Amino acid sequence: MPKLPVFKGKELIKFLEFLGFQVTRTKGSHSRLKSDDRRVTSVPVHGNKDVPKGLLRKIIREDLEMSLEEFTELYSKYKGNK
C-alpha cells in the first residue's frame, strides 16, 4: 500500500484545484470544493495543522472516488510539475 503524503489544508486545496476542483464556498475554517463531474468535498483549513490521515483517506476514497494508488500517482505528477 502506498504511503500517503502529509497535507496542510491549503496544500490539499491547491492539489484538488490541479485535479479540476473549484472552491465553491468557504465557511469558517472549511472550504467546499466541487468538480465538473459533480464530485464534492470539504477540506478543513485549521491554520498550519496537517489534515488527519483518516480524513484524507475518506476524502480520497469517498469524495474523490479514486484509489489510494491513483491519488499518490497523481500527486507525484503534480509535484513533478512544480
Describe this structure in words.
By secondary structure, the chain is of the alpha+beta class. The protein has a single domain (9-77), classed as Hypothetical protein (Metal Transport, Frataxin, Chain A, 2-Layer Sandwich). The chain has helices at residues 9-18, 53-63, 68-81, and strands spanning 22-27, 30-34, 40-44. A 3-stranded antiparallel β-sheet has the order 1-2-3, with helices on one face. It is globular. It starts with 8 loop residues before the first helix and ends with a helix.
Q: Given this structure, which CATH class is correct?
A: Alpha Beta
Q: Could you report the average pLDDT, rounded to the nearest whole number?
A: 94
What is the fourth-level CATH superfamily? Hypothetical protein
Distance between the termini: 25 Å
Specify Rg, calculated over alpha carbons.
12 Å
What is the share of helical residues?
Answer: 40-55%
Please provide the count of β strands. 3
Q: What is the N-to-C succession of helices and strands? A: HEEEHH
Which range does the strand content fall in?
15-25%
Number of helices: 3
Question: What attributes does this structure have?
Answer:
82 residues, alpha+beta, Metal Transport, Frataxin, Chain A, three-stranded antiparallel beta sheet, 3 strands, 43% helix, 20% strand
